[in-house]
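Format notes (please read before filing issues)

Several people have asked whether sequences and structure tokens are stored in separate files. They are not. Every record keeps both together, in the order shown below: the sequence lines, then the token lines. Line labels are part of the format and must not be stripped during preprocessing.
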Amino acid sequence: MRNSTSDLVKGVAVMLMVQVHLMELFAMESQSGSLVGKLSLFGGGAPAAPIFMLIMGYFAMQSSKTFGMQLWRGAKLLLLGFALNVLLNVHVLLRIAFGTLDIDPWKFVFGVDILPLAGISIMLIALFRYAFARNLIPYIIAILLAVLFPFFDYSFVVPGKAAYLMAFLGGSYAWSYFPLFPWVAYPLTGCVLFILGERATVKLFVEKQGRWLFLIGLAAVGATTFLAAPNIVDLPFYYHHNIFLYVWIVAFCLVWYWLLNKVNALSQRAWFLVYLRWVGKNVTAFYVFQWIIIGNLATWLYLTQRGWQLCCWFVGITFAVSVLVWTWNQLMRIRNQDIVL
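Then the structure lines:
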């Protein structure tokens, strides 16, 4: 049975990703540097990629899939990530191929975005499950290594072709957005949350003290937002953040999930929640289609759009992607029926 709150949270997360991609690639500098621009970048931070990775890790740990099945799933996500890198940069790569643009094409092909991170993380979780089962200690050690190991430091650089491999670990590379250090900490944290949630004493404590835990978390997050927010909107730092911001983001995500869980419980049939849950259920397809559209449009519209234009693009792209995802689902059903027949 699907978890409707998780679908809602993922749906909200990918919509926040759409708007932040528009702000980063389409918006004039006067827009992205404004208060609205900073709020957009913040919205595309903590409640977007990190919470998606936390949920992914949680359900990867819960999954009944075998070791081999999870490895294959991770490999498919990794390959999809490379394919998406090519598809979202088709226009740029064509210009490079025809000599009208003189820049390195490989940083576009090997861009370290969220899908490669997801694929590698799923494979690592499969290995951890196989080697350590549900022993908390190795997961916690791995999390600490991910947020403390020097590979994530933004000053770290390896020259030459090795840079394309090292960018998946971290370092000062413009195409390294979601490197393993520190980002693998989030799916591993999702694993830890699942393991803890299965323990009767923890489950009972959360059931009895859940409201107080939420209020304490809300107060702590609210009181420290002024410290975290500048680091989240500073994209180089956000993509290569430290243990302190990791702790804040995890706390924020837990509070955010609790809030959306209450919203989901109170308004199950509201049309916009139904839509967002549908988006969350189809999050991979939605993410892929929005990036293909935004990535290729950005070649023409890079840093040229005003605020009202960004709103129009958001509505138009969201509608177009929704139609594409719905059509894709119908084609997949037809294909599956054909295979059965």
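For reference, the curators noted about this record: The two ends are 27 Å apart (CA to CA). The chain is about 75% helix and 0% strand.
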